[in-house]
Amino acid sequence: MTKAKPGVTIRTLADLARLAGVHAGTVSRALAGSTVVNDETRLRIEALAAQHNFQPNQMARRLRTQRTGVIGIAVPLGHERRQHVSDPFFLTLFGHLADALTERGYDIMLSRIIPDAEDWLSRVVRSGMVDGVLLIGQSDQFDVIEAVAQDYQPLVVWGSHVPGQRHCAIGVDNFGGGRLVGEHLVARGSTRIAFMGEIRTLEITERHRGLCAAAQAAGIALPIQLDTHMASDVMGEEIAANLDRVSGKIDAIACASDVIARQTIRTLTERGLSVPGDIRVTGFDDLPFTEQMIPSITTVRQDLAIGSTAMIDALFARMKGEDTPSLEMTPRLIVRDSA
Predict the structure, then answer these.
(1) Which of 176, 178, 281, 304 has the fewest Cβ atoms nearer than 10 Å?
(2) Given its phi and psi angles, is residue 136 left (phi above 0), alpha (psi -120 to 50 degrees) or beta?
(3) Residue 17, exposed/middle/buried by CB under 10 A (0-12, 13-18, 19+)?
């Protein structure tokens, strides 16, 4: 690399532009990675900036472009105030989103939100701190998200889509996934099924509805619904109490998530019950640990890698003013040892 010329101090875009023999606007666009500047010029400007240890004034650039260079990722927990971002599902999806956003040159502002008023999302999108917002989950805040989506376009949500929905949601067909689980358990001979999970959020409710539809089509009793929180600090006790409630009455448990399935299998094993010998157990999500468990967990895959890419593509299109539709991915049943 050519050494910086002695006595030459580069403090501003104008200084660098004079050295490069181009306009300051060209320098600004080149350092921002704009495709408007041809590769040869861009590489030359980047090399000069590196030689002179030039760092553009990001605050000035943001004021000029009306962009913050930051994407907000929020996890609303109106339905489950004790759940944490360290939940394996949140971490897995967040990891995919963070990798893709940083590759595009954006910073991330992560928020775990306990909705304390109906304007919580309005405060996020109007803060002036972000260029767009990704929500991980709809929680029990569907109406709040719908209201904000009427006026704020760069908003994309991981979740379910229902007819007439205004906000852009990317997610799996949860009803179809629940039905796949039910059909599989029935095909394996299960006739007394329980559903381990709360039905307060749209996604989980749809999974439960799909399971019920499969049971009804098979002519067996509707699944027993057992409230189970996603929060790890109470999940174990609730699962144990639920199992006491249905002891001897069920031969299969469809869990609302892989995390619930993992704890359910652990509790059953501690009680000397065999999975799947005594009770079949299924999960939902196909998180990385499901294949490593003993027994490995039969689950429904919602492809988080593909889904996260779709979320970011939709968000950036919306940041340009495009009105992208929701996307409902096809679920896939992954059959493993637990069922």
Answers:
(1) 176
(2) beta
(3) buried
Bridge partner list, 71: 108, 132
Cα dihedral: 122, 123, 125, 126 (round 10): 100
Amino acid at 119: D
DSSP string, 199-243: --SHHHHHHHHHHHHHHHHHT-PPPEEE---S-HHHHHHHHHHHH
Q: Above 80 in pLDDT, residue 66?
A: no
Nearest in space to 283 (alpha carbons), one of 213, 200, 185: 185
Q: How would you list the strands of the sheet with 327-329, edge to edge?
A: 107-113, 70-76, 132-136, 155-158, 168-172, 327-329
Nearest residue to 148 (alpha-carbon basis) of 163, 128, 126, 170: 126
What tokens were used for 207? 């999974």
Rg from Cα positions in the chain? 25
- Give the DSSP letter of residue 57: -
- Report helix, strand or coil for 195: strand
Write the DSSP assignment of 242-297 as a string of letters. Answer: HHHHTTTT-SEEEESSHHHHHHHHHHHHHTT--TTTT-EEE-SB--GGGGTSSSPP
β-pair type (299-301, 332-334): antiparallel
User: What is the residue whose two structure tokens read 């049971």?
Assistant: 215
HEC assignment per residue over 290-310: HHCCCCCCEEEECCHHHHHHH
pLDDT in tens, 221-271: 999 999 998 877 789 999 999 999 999 999 999 999 999 999 999 999 999
Contact at 8 Å (CB) between 176 and 330? yes
Sign of CA dihedral 293, 193, 269, 266: positive
Torsion of CA 162, 84, 285, 179, to 10 degrees: -50
> For tokens 């003013």, what's the residue?
321
Task: Say what the pTM is.
Answer: 0.78
Give the residue-averaged pLDDT of 317-324: 94
